[in-house]
């Protein structure tokens, strides 16, 4: 039984913004399948009465005082930018919302 | 002379530095020389920062002669896993996507290392973004195991473990999400400790799975691990999950343990972490180590943690889910690699996908895709949500087990170091390496791997000691006791039995 | 799917006669904290690009968020002011989506556990009627950076060659307030929408949690509109118009969407559930690009943050410290001042409430304060096309001006000249009176000279007055006022003239 189809891998790769070659899609469809099957076992014990644990060491209300600290310099911020212009990051045209 | 320095443990070297027998510059140069001699074969280092290290060493020497108060490890050189950001030093996390990236800031643990005057020798190799158990997933080539150059040094922190095992550094930093400090420790004959989650700041660790990641020491002795843990650990207000309490006294616990008395200590053998799937030599050494602990006065009991069987499954849901989100920032917009799409319009979206498709290696893609799938519409509850529940069950198992025992023990890894390529095409087999180490990450409890002999194949085996959360001192006490006792039988450290590495002539 | 041209609209009155609009409004407010939501980068409007980030707000590898405690307090304040329940425990979640202005490619937000939920707010319409809007939730999150589109049509994303990103805004704390479906507003839906956003703005300011300046984008509204055939009919398909950034635009957006959707429905088509954009210049909405993964945000609890569990003591402490809400304050002030309903509405709509309150606090009568702000100053503000509150005169100065009049130092006419001086930056009213020499002439000697001259010049008037007809005395007074350039106290002049003539 294939849990993750080729199409599904392609859809998820789109969501994850990763270009995959066709051979990669094929391979991942096979490999992810194995993992997903092993994962199905989890649901056997994860019953409704068991609470979820998101943090191994429970803490609450970890807050910071609203006091400014030194910001990075514009030079440091842009040092690794693939492209920049006028103190800003230059990115390819964005399709989408205005 | 230089060879002698590199053979010293960190605490021995610290003593020599303190009494003036050796200077930090000498010690640092000795390790840099050793790196130059052997790292061509090993590839433990991705970047060597000789100049900076020597400058730090000279500074520490000057402060020492000026009579400044210095920390216990001042002047002792250290190597840092490349997943930890270092201001001004390249940081790649073993990935092409970060090639050439120089961070503008230091991780908290790096700040502490710098403040304590430890010269940073360089950055060590690792599986890309710490995803792997063999360091075969580094974009910059395999690191080899000093015990056998055809074999893996473990992973993801194979570089740190190999560097320490090969006497390139007395200390190194590792990170452990599912065993990446402990398993390389086991297969290289070194000590690797994963602190309690929240015990060492994660600020500045390039995250794989935020709720599982912990940084910790990679050393040749248990005492060194405790000393380094004390140096890098403790509360950090920049990490919201950092425990706001002082660490227990770790080095003291190690020294106490080395004295060899474990009377009254209950050692729990986790039933589910032994037997089938464990290499014969691994099981044999484990049984002998239990005898050693008994001989030291410990009471050995068997405990059952029935949900550990599901730990690996839960881990492979939580880890990729968190990783898929943590790795989203690598998109070619602000730093790192940017790749233009080979066809079609050049839009931000297309450039991101081309960059990630080219910049990420196979294992990273595999985990990001799986994690994205696990979080994708309709699957959250079934996958990630269920895995979080397993976490609760694993924690309950630990709680019950720690009612019966002060520490829990198991072999660190089911096998000794395997050959390159052996498990590359079988992710599940690869993942099984972490079966004994993962429960501690899920529950947040501390664990250490201590070398406990050689298997039938002549390769090192590790003994894992797990302690309750925030009781990291216990694992150091027990680890040091075992280590001291075993070294007596061996007549020295296990690493003394490692084959000599071929050295390249220095042209300096 | 038939494309409906934007010009194809049903007349508004006709549309609301046949369809029942249902609204849903999401308002984002930027909190006025000193630092960002999850890092200590200072927040300051108008700084050089990319000078207000840390590794955290820049989303650099390794960086970790830490919650700004003041932002949490502000969020609780907002929740309480909106009559919400405050969660005993809540969490942050990651909303995953790739966009260049989102540095981590996820927004740290709240998902199934908002800090505040189940509230309501009464919205006052211009005619004084109130309308209750139910609040579903208010949650904490962080703002994105700012894109500037280069090339193509100026500043527009479509056809742009590339974009420039500034992350100064990235990570500024936001509270997003989401209404339940707003039903029953009928034809007044556009007005309700506008009044709701305006009411929130006033509350944010009263709470001192934000400067709440619409023009700076401190407050942004996403407006959901759907139509159904009647109040009993099932809800229709909604559209969401994003980032509507002025009160007027909120109203116009709703109005336009009602007309547009009515046309779609009339044509027998179905409304497409989509994101739309409001165009201020043309007054229409247009569809945004359809993003295939827009709804698959892969939310999960933010593992780098721990739960926020405000203690009940803390919540009650915050509640006790809440200032008076704008509506209550308006009611109280109207009672204190004795303004008629219509007068009060005018004052509120003119944005003169604070100004009048401060002027009254300076010692002016409520009537006197209103006279100035709603009269002379409103007229000048309108002439200069600036908001009343940005006139270069303070309530304290107006109070001083009124005191000078009351004390007889100046008269109404002089007061306007004094105001000229104040507005010209010549100082406080008293100083302007001095420097311009505008004080009322109260020296009887100086007045008598002028009076005697006037009497001598108009003997016929003097005769009439002496004959018992006081009517023409105004001519003498006028001449005296003219001679003293208006600086004489007319009442005193009259007394002296009559005295002189012997009456
Ligand atoms: Mg919205
Ligand atoms: Zn929002």
From TrEMBL, chain A:
Task: Show the catalytic activity.
Answer: L-aspartyl-tRNA(Asn) + L-glutamine + ATP + H2O = L-asparaginyl-tRNA(Asn) + L-glutamate + ADP + phosphate + 2 H(+); L-glutamyl-tRNA(Gln) + L-glutamine + ATP + H2O = L-glutaminyl-tRNA(Gln) + L-glutamate + ADP + phosphate + H(+)
Top-rank taxon, per record: Bacteria
Q: What Gene3D superfamilies does the record point to?
A: Glu-tRNAGln amidotransferase C subunit, N-terminal domain
Q: What is its EC number?
A: 6.3.5.-
Which Pfam family is an annotated match for this chain, by its short name?
A: GatC
Q: Which UniProt keywords apply?
A: ATP-binding, Ligase, Nucleotide-binding, Protein biosynthesis
Q: What class of enzyme is it?
A: ligase
Q: What role does this protein play?
A: Allows the formation of correctly charged Asn-tRNA(Asn) or Gln-tRNA(Gln) through the transamidation of misacylated Asp-tRNA(Asn) or Glu-tRNA(Gln) in organisms which lack either or both of asparaginyl-tRNA or glutaminyl-tRNA synthetases. The reaction takes place in the presence of glutamine and ATP through an activated phospho-Asp-tRNA(Asn) or phospho-Glu-tRNA(Gln).
Record-stated family: Belongs to the GatC family.
**Oligomeric and partner information:** Heterotrimer of A, B and C subunits.
The record's HAMAP family line, in alphabetical order, gives:
GatC
Mind telling me what this protein is named?
Answer: Aspartyl/glutamyl-tRNA(Asn/Gln) amidotransferase subunit C
Q: Which organism is it from?
A: Myceligenerans indicum
Lineage start: Bacteria, Bacillati, Actinomycetota, Actinomycetes, Micrococcales
State the gene name recorded for this protein.
gatC
UniProtKB/TrEMBL annotation, chain B:
What keywords does the record list, in alphabetical order?
ATP-binding, Ligase, Nucleotide-binding, Protein biosynthesis
Family, per entry: Belongs to the amidase family. GatA subfamily.
Domain Amidase residues, every copy:
26-474
Q: Which GO terms describe its molecular function?
A: glutaminyl-tRNA synthase (glutamine-hydrolyzing) activity
Coiled-coil positions: none
> Matching Pfam families, A to Z?
Amidase
Statement: the UniProt record of this protein carries the keyword Nucleotide-binding: yes
Per the UniProt record, the source organism is: Myceligenerans indicum
Q: What class of enzyme is it?
A: ligase
Name assigned to this protein: Glutamyl-tRNA(Gln) amidotransferase subunit A
Catalytic residue positions: 81 (charge relay system), 156 (charge relay system), 180 (acyl-ester intermediate)
From TrEMBL, chain C:
What does it catalyze? L-glutamyl-tRNA(Gln) + L-glutamine + ATP + H2O = L-glutaminyl-tRNA(Gln) + L-glutamate + ADP + phosphate + H(+); L-aspartyl-tRNA(Asn) + L-glutamine + ATP + H2O = L-asparaginyl-tRNA(Asn) + L-glutamate + ADP + phosphate + 2 H(+)
Looking at the keywords, is DNA repair present?
no
What Gene3D superfamilies is this protein classified in?
1.10.10.410
Q: What SUPFAM superfamilies does UniProt report for this protein, alphabetically?
A: GatB/YqeY motif, Glutamine synthetase/guanido kinase
Keywords, in A-Z order = ATP-binding, Ligase, Nucleotide-binding, Protein biosynthesis
Query: Which PROSITE patterns does the UniProt entry name for this protein?
Result: GATB (PS01234)
Q: Which InterPro entries match?
A: Asn/Gln-tRNA_amidoTrfase_suB/E, Asn/Gln-tRNA_Trfase_suB/E_cat, Asn/Gln_amidotransferase, Asn/Gln_tRNA_amidoTrase-B-like, GatB, GatB_Yqey_C_2, Gln-tRNA_amidoTrfase_suB_CS, Gln_synth/guanido_kin_cat_dom
Q: Out of the domains of life, which is the source?
A: Bacteria
Q: Could you say which EC number(s) this protein's record lists?
A: 6.3.5.-
The answer to whether the entry has keyword Protein biosynthesis is: yes
In what residue span(s) does the Asn/Gln amidotransferase domain sit?
A: 354-501
Query: What does the similarity note say?
Result: Belongs to the GatB/GatE family. GatB subfamily.
Query: By its UniProt entry, which NCBIfam families does this protein fall under?
Result: gatB, PRK05477.1-2, PRK05477.1-3, PRK05477.1-4
Subunit comment for this entry? Answer: Heterotrimer of A, B and C subunits.
Function, as annotated: Allows the formation of correctly charged Asn-tRNA(Asn) or Gln-tRNA(Gln) through the transamidation of misacylated Asp-tRNA(Asn) or Glu-tRNA(Gln) in organisms which lack either or both of asparaginyl-tRNA or glutaminyl-tRNA synthetases. The reaction takes place in the presence of glutamine and ATP through an activated phospho-Asp-tRNA(Asn) or phospho-Glu-tRNA(Gln).
Protein name in UniProt: Aspartyl/glutamyl-tRNA(Asn/Gln) amidotransferase subunit B
Q: Which organism is it from?
A: Myceligenerans indicum
Organism phylogeny: Bacteria, Bacillati, Actinomycetota, Actinomycetes, Micrococcales
